[in-house]
Amino acid sequence: MHRPIFYVSDGTGITAETIGHSVLTQFDGIDFDTVRIPFVDDEEKAHGAAARIRNVYATGGVRPIVVNTVIDPELTEILATSGALMLDVFAPFIAPLEAELGTKRASHVGMAHGLTDFAEYEARINATNYALTHDDGVDVNYADAEVILVGVSRVGKTPTCLYMALHYGVKAANYPLTEDDLDKLELPKRLIPHKPRLYGLTIDAQRLAQVREARKPGSRYAKVEQCRRELELADKLFRRENIPVQNTTHTSIEEIASKILARLGIEKHMF
Q1: Which of 16, 124, 165, 228 ranks highest by number of CB atoms within 10 Å?
Q2: Which CATH number fits domain 2-113: 3.30.470, 3.30.1490, 3.40.50, 3.30.460?
Q3: Greater model confidence, 256 or 18
């Protein structure tokens, strides 16, 4: 079964897509064809979006679903003329909050992703720069690192570091375990002073081989046997040094980051 999903927003559409995706993953056996329509912030754009959704409905014969974060109720009414099932992300929260707080919401477009706190924005940018300069052991001065991810090549260290930096402002570095490190089965000396901040990442050997094959086709580096050997040695090292480990094979980057922050006691909130 295929079902068209539209994430419609008067801003970037990130909120609608993030929430919508989280909900849709609860439904098995359905292929969702997703489209994001951002910056629907006037009547002309709303009519254009409605026409686009209506056309998909007429062509495919299946009622689309719209996950909507448009603030202006008049624009939402225009979108509803598409005939789609309208799911307003904010609606269930607004009335109870207005009653509890004794004030009406401020209907400002794009506030969720606006540059409202320059200190938080600067922290996020600084953390991102830190992750980039401390990627794959390029800079091994880990004095300021809040997290140091450790693992063999291509287990997901870099994207996880960047995610934590961009969304939480966490200064995250990563260190790739080399064959020399694994053969010694010892924690590299440069990591020993920072052991409380270490977190290991691992992955299924078959999946790792696929990732490496895409990077270096036909190489020894990408062979399943080589991947399995490296992962087994890395796991032994993690157990020996009592380093917490997260398997990334079937886990989203959001969940990986959340588990790492919780385990290391880093209490930061998503920007």
Answers
A1: 16
A2: 3.40.50
A3: 256
